[in-house]
């Protein structure tokens, strides 16, 4: 049966990098994979086309799709818009409307790019961490929220950090399942020494862990986790944490690898329907210049094949093709190194296609 893939390029370099990933999807189609690709606007492009960052037609398309490939959203021209019309609202809307509660953020250091990391090669060589971040709960969504004026006339901002047992239970299960398929080590990151929410989080993770005897479960306070990530990141296999902690730690982990242009991500619902996207933004500083690295988006297609389309062999093929392109010394400017050949977005997409063919 045909799988419906919604293609949402978004804004800035999103358009350029998604075009390269679509080449890969078209190639898979020509090899017999039954895919139906449909493109729609989101973010600033959604605002331009339909007056809101998540147009009704785009929402209907993604709800009907089996998987979604997203580029990136945002740009300086949209920053003055009211908050509810800003591109980022389109992204938050997609996550909450589709119930994409599990964000998978791998931080992998390709051996060919070991010099790109700001840490010593021996600290990061062979790095392969999976951060599982809760994505639809916690302080980014908690109510009440707002800015109010106190009796003395001073304004104060407030947000609510709240997690129910069922929310922690389901994200823990995703993390334990992934740990089972990897190194069987899971570190749950919280702030249980200060926050009641974290106390409940830890209790719930421990309870779920009783069903996963093969996984070695540990706990770490988020401040220590931030230190350990830069001190000795290879101690981690899978990490699971709440929305805000995961937001910050996964970006720190990403930088250990040297380039955000290399890292894909997945956001999954309870039935493994997923939205796949590079971790970076729309990079307005290089948009339209043909220099953006499309590999994170192409690797997002590999994640889609692995986690939503049940095609692990094809996912391996794409990962291997990217590895061979790096072996040949082909580099976009963000990962350029001495002795390598600098190429642009389209050439990088073509190089991966050549390896796949
Ligand atoms: P960014 O990730 O867009 O860019 C940060 C830096 O990394 C820039 O110097 C950029 O040129 C570079 N970079 C990013 N992706 C690259 C790639 N594929 N190849 C080469 N270089 C790359 O972050 P930012 O500048 O903070 O944000 C720009 C816009 O993107 C903002 O509007 C922000 O809100 C938005 N944003 C969107 C998402 C998303 O759509 N998921 C995520 C983060 C930021």
Q: Could you please describe the fold and organization of this structure?
A:
By secondary structure, this protein is of the alpha/beta class. It has two domains: 1-101 and 269-357, Isopropylmalate Dehydrogenase, CATH 3.40.718; 110-258, Isopropylmalate Dehydrogenase. 41% of the residues lie in helices and 20% in strands. The chain contains twelve helices and 14 strands. Strands 2-1-3-12-11-4-5-10-8-9 form a ten-stranded mixed β-sheet, sandwiched between helices. A two-stranded antiparallel sheet has the order 6-7. A two-stranded parallel sheet has the order 13-14. Strand 6 and strand 7 (155-158) form a beta hairpin. The radius of gyration is 20 Å and the shape is globular. Nicotinamide-adenine-dinucleotide is lined by residues 13, 17, 72-75, 88, 91, 260-261, 277, 280-286, 292-293, 296, 334.
How would you briefly describe this protein structure?
It is built from twelve helices and 14 strands. The chain has 357 residues and is α/β, with parallel strands linked by helices. The model has no long low-confidence stretch (mean pLDDT 95).
Radius of gyration: 20 Å
- Which cofactors or ions or other ligands sit in this model? nicotinamide-adenine-dinucleotide
Largest sheet: 10 strands, mixed
* Named CATH architecture of the largest domain: 3-Layer(aba) Sandwich
Encode the helix/strand succession as letters. Answer: EHEHHEHEHEEEHEHEHEHEEHHEEH
Strand content: 15-25%
Instruction: Report the top-level CATH class of the largest domain.
Output: Alpha Beta
Proportion of helical residues: 40-55%
Report the uncertain regions.
none
Anisotropy-based shape: globular
Mean residue pLDDT: 95
> Number of folding domains?
2
Taking strands numbered 1, 2, ... along the chain, how are they ordered across the largest sheet? Answer: 2-1-3-12-11-4-5-10-8-9
CATH homologous superfamily of the largest domain - what is it? Isopropylmalate Dehydrogenase
What is the tally of helical segments? 12
CATH T-level topology of the largest domain: Isopropylmalate Dehydrogenase
Structural class: alpha/beta
Distance between the termini: 24 Å
